[in-house]
Design a protein that fits this description.
homodimer, 8 helices, five-stranded parallel sheet, 5 strands, 233 residues
């Protein structure tokens, strides 16, 4: 029987690289995406395109409304910061931080994994480019895995429980892009921008665009997506 | 400034007792309930009645669809077991177990707590009467708290982070009921049944009804709610 893995799929380049890595390791991929009141719903369209193009086994989109709590520029009417250098990004937890987002996403992934009988969850977090989010750090992921093993039937019955795989955790954005290109990921299908225009075209100036563009530049690869202005490239 | 606490509020007797305990400790209570495709939506009505009657500060109901994954008698068309004794309940993880439910609920509580600036979350889990659910054990709760402290801004900035309070963890159902009655909880507003009829009347025969009725009997207090047949009392 083929091994199953739940892969958190945001529609960005990190998560689509995770899909390719999981498939390369021989997993049947069960993609999980969230409609969480994010301003950039274009992400969800990207996640569907990636799920189709990469031939994953099943793709679930879960509706949750994080706007009920408020508190983030990604779900509220707070302005997304533009044109910051990496030093400014690292100096503080950004307003684009959504409270407990990865904890909520991983909890649903855990429920999905338990239901389909998967022992593996993949999440594309990244310690180098994490840009100040507390829930992207290796210590956090290790603590989540420990909690998850105590939370589930599988953990009790088999004394194994789920593994949280973070294949990108020590990679630079450039390394992630090179890996994905080698594995055949079509980055033209992905989107990273926190603040795209109505047609879904990336702004080129938010933290996510800046990190993405820098990654492509360092990898010596042309970013195949469109930007609102070519001067940002 | 009054301290704030997020209390997970199911509409059952454990969570309403938690509200009373948190208020007694001087917290402003922010109640959090979930519409998760449970068959017993009567729970949500009970949670609203309790929130009103107990004068909590704010009550949020979050819509999430655990049915997307399936796998539990509480959200699927699997029959709820009836008439089991406690030995049978303890012998296995019940089909009413919802995969990763408490992990998902606590994750949302963490997001809510972080947004309103609360350092405390209350959950009415119970190690003695936990009836086979892996995510009601003290080890699990401790692991969740550790993970939560690593997950949040508060954990990073203040080196404190959230506390997961489980005031009922070592109490019997009878002790919980006596405590609640002393604190003035009106248990007539609560509901516990996994399989009520269309009018919301409790079945008296599912695991939850059996544990509740036994608790009231041991406490020497009459359960003020109605049952489908008085022979179950």
């Amino acid at each position: 029987m083929t091994k199953k893995a739940v892969v958190l799929l945001s529609g960005g380049l990190d998560s689509s690289t995770c899909v390719a890595i999981a498939q390369k390791k021989g997993f049947d991929v069960y993609g999980l995406s969230f409609s969480y009141g994010q301003r950039h719903t274009i992400e969800l369209e990207a996640s569907k395109r990636i799920a189709n193009a990469m031939g994953i086994t099943r793709h679930e989109i879960i509706d949750i409304d994080l706007r009920a709590f408020g508190g983030s520029a990604l779900t509220d009417d707070i302005d997304v910061p533009k044109g910051r250098d990496e030093e400014a990004m690292d100096a503080e937890i950004p307003v684009t931080y959504v409270p407990a987002r990865n904890t909520i996403f991983l909890s649903f992934a855990l429920a999905f994994a338990e239901t389909i009988g998967a022992d593996d969850i993949f999440i594309g977090v990244n310690a180098l480019d994490y840009s100040g989010y507390p829930d992207c750090r290796p210590d956090y992921i290790a603590a989540f895995q420990k909690m998850a093993r105590l939370a589930t039937k599988a953990g009790i019955e088999n004394d194994i429980g789920v593994r949280i795989n973070t294949p990108l955790i020590d990679m630079t954005k450039a390394e992630i892009i090179k890996t994905g290109v080698e594995l055949g990921v079509d980055y033209a299908l992905t989107t990273s921008c926190y603040d795209p225009d109505q047609a879904g075209i990336s702004c080129g100036q938010c933290d996510a665009c800046i990190l993405r563009l820098k990654g492509f530049k360092e990898a010596g690869i042309i970013d195949p997506i469109e930007y609102q202005n070519d001067i940002f490239r």
